[in-house]
Write a structure and sequence with these properties.
Protein name: Poly(A) RNA polymerase mitochondrial-like central palm domain-containing protein
CATH topology of the largest domain: Beta Polymerase, domain 2
Strand order of the largest sheet: 1-2-5-4-3
Order of helices and strands: HEHEHEEEHHHHEEE
Distance between the termini: 34 Å
Number of helices: 7
GO molecular function: mRNA binding; poly(A) RNA polymerase activity
Pfam family, one: MTPAP-like_central
InterPro entries: MTPAP-like_central, NT_sf, Trf4-like
CATH class of the largest domain: Alpha Beta
Shape: elongated
Radius of gyration: 20 Å
Amino acid sequence: SQVRLQREATKELLDAIHVIWPRARAKVFGSVAAGLALPGSDVDIVLWLPPVRNNILENILEVGILESGNETKESFVQQLARHLRKFAFINAESLKVVEKTAIPIVSVEYIKSDAEGGKSLMIDISVQSPNHKGLLAAAVVRELLEIFPELCPITLVIKSFLQQQGLSKAYTGGLSSYCLTLMVASFLIHQAGRKFPSPAALLLDFLHLVSHINRTWKFSIALGISKIPESETSFDPLFVEDPLQAKKNAAQ
């Protein structure tokens, strides 16, 4: 199953990563952790070090940065990419380092060969940092899904379309799953007080709304949807408020 493949891939990757970072830990976040994954969705994994003790009785709360004995001044993702290229379960041709983004990643294709034939899984690996909000974002999405039952089917339909068009990754100019979820949730909040029709009707209403954006609109899970005065706009036609980082546009 897809879940078993994800677990096997995470374990094999972590075993390989332990060669260079013995204390590293890994956790899945993103749409898989939030419950909004499509068949074939990429798996997002974040690496970090567990808390350490500064004495017998007291724990240091912050997780540690990864160790590196590398003196070539490579970034963590560059070092990780070079290391993973050695392993047979990684498609070396698929390996890509993306650093010109808020959270640098290593994108790889995991390949598993067995008696039933080959299976593959795309995985994006990032490293924990103060700016990394992936695990918290997954928690926000799970809470929104509990509040709005309509959120899941509407988001999955749009995600499927974006995936087919190659527009499901923010770092390639598309729309991230997190951003899309915030937009749909803001739309549902904007409908407060209105008796919800079927999810299909809500989907059509949402698509009609976003297709008529002709100036900067703000999507907020706190305030719903509003137009931003021209005096306050930037060049972005879309502003999706990130509840985890004040004034950050999740659409960027």
